[in-house]
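Data availability (excerpt). All sequences and predicted token strings are deposited with the supplementary files. A representative entry, Cytochrome c3 family protein, is shown inline so that the format can be inspected without opening the archive.
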Amino acid sequence: MSRFPTVRRLAAAAAVALFLASAPCVQAFAADAPASGKFLADRHVARGMKCDACHVSAQGGKLKAEKSDYGVCATCHGDYQKVAARTEAKYKDSGQPNPHNQHDGALPCTECHKGHKAGVNYCAQCHSYVYKVP
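Structure token line:
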């Protein structure tokens, strides 16, 4: 049996550890990610975004555009109506309404999407809708 695959796995693990050690904002939430999946912020980092794309500082902390209706999310994802239109097909045949096009109006994105914490199904406060919220 060859030891080469083991060496490759060790080298890959070392590369990941080196990356995490050099990225302060990644350290801040990677260790807290639930075993069942990643937080929304992890998904953004995996796509190459840096912490200061959303946060005032490269080390994280306060969000940019914190006081706006849609927060910093609209910078990349567009306004609430654009998100509702883009996600309409996903819910068309689900038997559930599009959570981005509902009766409470244009909610702040952070009502459901928490970034460094597990997402929250806001609609479940009153309804029995089951949404997987990133």
